[in-house]
Backbone:
């Protein structure tokens, strides 16, 4: 099939970008500090930091990591926190010290956290104290040598810092008691770092910037190795797409999705640092009333989210009173945008809800709809610059236009490999560096791509990947369970939720008992919402459980 290039379909966007435009992410930050120094870079709970302040604070943290913790280039450091000002300071500080950042979901259970810390070999962790109890449960069984804790309000002005931290800890009681031997506070780390001499580290495009964990068909979370070059390529690709509509140094993006998620990390945090924009951080987007209150009079020009986030906003009464007069685009990713949500969004805001597509393994952007789009079109858009798309059948041959096949991607944003998992890498990356996404798609004659199905058994809950094997491994450990299979079933609120089919070992086992059991061992979005008991599960002639039959049974 003839390759269809982006430049034919959106005026002003180049066919290719230069993935070597910057030497590293540290160069990206340095150039933005020079260009936009005193302009605001991040804002959270009424407190702003400028590009110059981000530079100074991240430098102090980098110096602390070098001089006080003796961390060296290539060491891994985990960051486990929601959207607060400490995140970009710690993240850029780690990158400046030549470290690899391991992003961790703060909602992880001790079991999930232990796996990620052990698999990555992280030597240090920066953690919000609300979740320090989880770390306490498992830290002795991990390679963690250094712990830095922080409270949610630590980077706010003194009075607000005291009030926020007091209310969270003593009024709302959101910080369980914990004891972590040798833990240092984030504010102390910054103070000590300011008195140390930072030793510049030579970082290039081939060095690893992030180990970004994602699930797999085996159910074991794997670290996608994203180099500085991978991330820079995606920033250049996204910037090229945005450039015709963006006013550098003047944009304001609402960042509600967590920065530990690759979508928010690249599309919001890093892209708008490069463009000199302001990231307005929402710490708790689930509190829709307060979320809307925060942005009601904010002159924001962009917002990203997953379908469930947009749906939640639309169902918050006060959202219609938000000032949308400066909004240039709203971008949905992580899960399919529902047409009903897109239509309501357009009706209320006057702007289309654009759908994009990406993967953790692609840093993440692959396709984006044009900013000139007038209304939702039900596609994931066009390939971004320097991105090749191939739709292939089961034999690896390219299919024709409008025919469904597996979506394969090649470009400078594609990960190097899965961390220390060559066999898993070989399953998705061929010798020509084509990434097999596991998603089934079709391409129109105009080059627009449409996702038609998922080849994998992966379940997508509010933009997060949930893999059946992980759920099954947890549930089957219950002494009353003989066999279990997990599938995704449709949900208006989250796209999909988990349903398990169970064959009992102990006939007294109840659905409530199994759900409670799972809640103790899995992050909330992975916990089954429905349980159906069966006398036997459908299986192939070699004994493999046929999940598709179970999905079909649910749909029927």
Residues:
């Amino acid at each position: 099939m003839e390759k269809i290039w982006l430049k034919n379909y959106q005026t002003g966007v180049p066919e290719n970008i230069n993935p070597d435009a910057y030497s590293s992410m540290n160069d990206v930050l340095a150039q933005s500090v020079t260009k936009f120094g005193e302009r605001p870079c991040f804002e959270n709970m009424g407190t702003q930091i400028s590009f110059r302040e981000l530079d100074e604070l991240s430098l102090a943290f980098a110096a602390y990591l070098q001089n006080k913790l003796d961390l060296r280039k290539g060491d891994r450091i985990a960051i486990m926190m929601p959207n607060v000002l400490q995140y970009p300071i710690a993240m850029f500080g780690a990158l400046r010290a030549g470290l690899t950042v391991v992003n961790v979901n703060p909602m992880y259970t001790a079991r999930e956290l232990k796996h990620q810390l052990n698999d990555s070999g992280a030597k240090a962790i920066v953690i919000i104290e609300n979740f320090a109890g989880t770390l306490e449960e498992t830290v002795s069984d991990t390679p963690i040598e250094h712990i830095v804790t922080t409270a949610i309000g630590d980077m706010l002005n003194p009075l607000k810092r005291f009030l926020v931290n007091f209310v969270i800890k003593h009024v709302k009681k959101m910080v369980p008691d914990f004891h972590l031997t040798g833990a240092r506070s984030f504010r102390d780390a910054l103070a000590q770092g300011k008195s140390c001499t930072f030793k510049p580290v030579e970082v290039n495009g081939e060095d690893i910037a992030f180990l970004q964990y994602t699930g797999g068909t085996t159910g074991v979370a794997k670290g996608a190795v994203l180099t500085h070059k991978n991330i820079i390529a995606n920033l250049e690709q996204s910037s090229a797409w945005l450039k015709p509509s963006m006013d550098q140094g003047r944009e304001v993006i609402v960042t509600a999705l967590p920065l530990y998620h690759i979508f928010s990390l690249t599309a919001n945090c890093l892209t708008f640092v490069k463009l000199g924009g302001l990231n307005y951080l929402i710490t708790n987007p689930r509190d829709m009333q307060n979320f809307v209150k925060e942005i009601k009079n904010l002159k924001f020009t962009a917002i990203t989210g997953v379908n469930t986030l947009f749906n939640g906003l639309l169902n918050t009464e006060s959202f219609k009173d938000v000032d949308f007069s400066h909004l240039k685009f709203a971008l949905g990713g992580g899960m399919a945008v529902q047409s009903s949500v897109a239509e309501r969004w357009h009706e209320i805001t006057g702007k289309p809800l654009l759908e994009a597509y990406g993967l953790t393994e692609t840093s993440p952007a692959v396709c984006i709809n044009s900013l000139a789009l007038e209304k939702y079109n039900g596609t994931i858009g066009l390939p971004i610059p320097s991105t090749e798309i191939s739709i292939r059948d089961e034999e690896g041959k390219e299919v024709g236009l409008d025919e469904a096949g597996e979506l394969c991607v090649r470009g400078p944003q594609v990960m190097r490999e899965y961390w220390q998992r060559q066999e898993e890498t070989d399953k998705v990356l061929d010798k020509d560096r084509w990434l097999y996404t596991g998603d089934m798609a079709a391409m129109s004659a105009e080059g627009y791509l449409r996702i038609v199905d998922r080849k994998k058994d992966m379940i997508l809950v509010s933009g997060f990947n949930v893999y059946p094997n992980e759920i099954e491994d947890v549930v089957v450990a219950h002494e009353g369970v003989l066999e279990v299979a997990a599938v995704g079933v449709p949900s208006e609120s989250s796209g999909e939720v988990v349903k398990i089919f169970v064959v009992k070992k102990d006939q007294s086992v109840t659905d409530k008992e199994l759900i409670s059991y799972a809640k103790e061992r899995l992050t909330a979005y992975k916990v089954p919402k429905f349980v159906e008991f069966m006398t036997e599960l459908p299986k192939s002639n070699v004994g493999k459980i046929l999940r598709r039959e179970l999905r079909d049974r649910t749909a029927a």
About this structure: The first helix runs from residue 25 to 36.
